[in-house]
Amino acid sequence: MPNWCSTDYQIVGKQQNVENLFKGLQKVLSTDRSDKKRNSFLPDSSWLGYVASDILDIDPEKECVPCRGSISYMDEEMDDDKNLASFTLSTETAWSDCRKLFYLLSIRFDVEILFYTEELGCDIHETNDEEGRYFDSRYLLDDSENEMSYYSSFGEFAKEIEDMTGEKPDKFEDVDDILERHKLSEIMNAHRIDIVSLQDF
């Protein structure tokens, strides 16, 4: 069984371009695939492979476009502000996000696709939203006894560490030692969210 990677996307751009992609994804999700499943093992309509075949008109295996996962959420309506539109999409995929697929979608529809992706088993915490327009978290604490906590600045993150331990880290690299000294390292892990590119695949 794979580790599952959760990714949130914000698709932004000119109203017509975003609408074209939005409607294409709606059509993929609403298409009845039951006839195909009778004769072979195929996932349901949320499978990302259908996004590649139906929208991009490519065979994901032949084109080496990983599609190991599905759409877990999509907004029912776009957010339309004058000429700028956007919508949110989430996926659950095996091991890592399907970055090449979304890069190809961004090129085909001339839209900006910002994302945050997280897979705890492989310590993946990445975003391409460098300006923090939609995904502004830069640090997180994974507490096995509580929910994960996210922080948009090192100052905010360091203050949390200080409140728990009485020691304030000067830099991120100090945090593991502080948690270990206070016997918190077995239940708590600190992570820095890496800034990457949609083209990193």
Q: Which value, in Å, is the CA radius of gyration?
A: 20 Å
Instruction: List how many beta strands DSSP finds.
Output: 10
Percent helix range: 25-40%
* Terminal Cα span: 22 Å
Instruction: Tell me the quaternary state.
Output: single chain
**Main sheet specs:** 7 strands, mixed
Instruction: Give the ordered list of helices and strands.
Output: EHHHEEEHEEEEHHEE
Q: Helices and strands: which structural class? A: alpha+beta
Low-confidence stretches: none
Q: Average pLDDT value? A: 93
Count of discrete alpha- or pi-helical segments spanning 4 or more residues: 6
Basic shape = elongated
Q: What proportion strand?
A: 25-35%
Descriptive overview:
This protein has 201 residues and is α+β, with helices and mostly antiparallel strands. The protein has helices at residues 15-30, 34-39, 48-55, 99-109, 154-165, 175-181; strands at 4-14, 69-74, 79-81, 84-94, 112-119, 124-127, 139-143, 149-151, 188-192, 194-195. Helix 1 packs across helix 3 (48-55).
